[in-house]
Amino acid sequence: MNEISREELKKYMDQYQLDHTIGDLTPTLCALFGVPEPAECGAAGVAAVVDQAEHLTGRPGGIARGLIFCPDAVGEVHRQKYPEKLARVEKLAGFRIPSASVMPSVTPVCYGTIFSGASPTVHGIRKYEKPVLEIPTLFDVFAEAGKEVAIVAVNGCSIDTIFRRRKVDYYSFRTDAQSFEMTKKLLEEDKYDLIISYYTSYDHLSHKHGPYAPVSEDALETAVRYFEELTALTERVWQRADRVIAWVPDHGNHVVDEHSGTHGTNTPEDMVINHFYRLRAAE
């Protein structure tokens, strides 16, 4: 475990009195699939999720398929504002893991941590910029373990950019709707062990119109609906596989004025988020 990463991640966990960090996603997935953690990881696997997976599959590292849905900028503040929407995610998932984000709470910094388990100081992205990460990530260790991975995202977004040069397949599109359709297609084909599917519309519209504008709320509703539809599809196409589906945002956001919103601050609105996990055993 990288102690620099661990101390930096723990700082935000302690500040917000949370037991988990967004970086816990990587060691959790590594434990679920039986893959070694990346070398610079300082986060820890979510024990409740890992233990439940072992109970369901009857062995450590027994998960064979995973879908990680990444709705940008959906935090705990949105669960409080729209409880009925996020309750639909929690009902499907079963596990809600309140987690601390990292600073600055902007997308490339946060997803750099989420998919490496390393803190910003260690992975190197410390402001809004999109260099290719040089440290080992989830995608490196999965490829080394022989896992087939796909990243489906909008052209030029952080997830599409900072994890390049890995032995994974990249599917890049102009719109979230196209990414969603490709995610469904890849699930139907069932050639990937892990699929990352990114959703940007809520974040984009929140910046432009404000987090709680009707158009932004519609985009959040679409994110929930996409998660519901993808979860239902995995139940059919992965019926014979031990599997995990997760809802994995990066940060929240807050109101700037009547017409705009933003994030990047060390405040609860930006820093406290929820990761949701759904585990199912093969039938």
Explain this structure.
With 283 residues, this protein is an alpha/beta fold. It has one domain: Alkaline Phosphatase, subunit A, CATH 3.40.720.10. Helices cover 44% and strands 18% of the residues. It has 13 helices and 9 strands. It has helices at residues 3-15, 25-33, 47-57, 76-81, 83-93, 107-114, 120-123, 138-144, 158-162, 176-189, 201-209, 214-237, 268-271; strands at 65-71, 95-100, 149-154, 169-173, 194-199, 243-247, 254-257, 260-262, 272-280. The N and C termini lie far apart (36 Å).
In DSSP terms, counting alpha (H) and pi (I) runs of 4 or more, how many helices? 13
- How far is the N terminus from the C terminus? 36 Å
User: How many strand segments?
Assistant: 9
Number of domains: 1
What is the CATH topology?
A: Alkaline Phosphatase, subunit A
Which stretches of 5+ consecutive residues score pLDDT under 50? none
Sheet with most strands:
7 strands, mixed
What is the average of the pLDDT values? 98
- Please bin the fraction of helical residues: 40-55%
Write the layout of secondary structure elements.
Elements: H1 3-15, H2 25-33, H3 47-57, E1 65-71, H4 76-81, H5 83-93, E2 95-100, H6 107-114, H7 120-123, H8 138-144, E3 149-154, H9 158-162, E4 169-173, H10 176-189, E5 194-199, H11 201-209, H12 214-237, E6 243-247, E7 254-257, E8 260-262, H13 268-271, E9 272-280
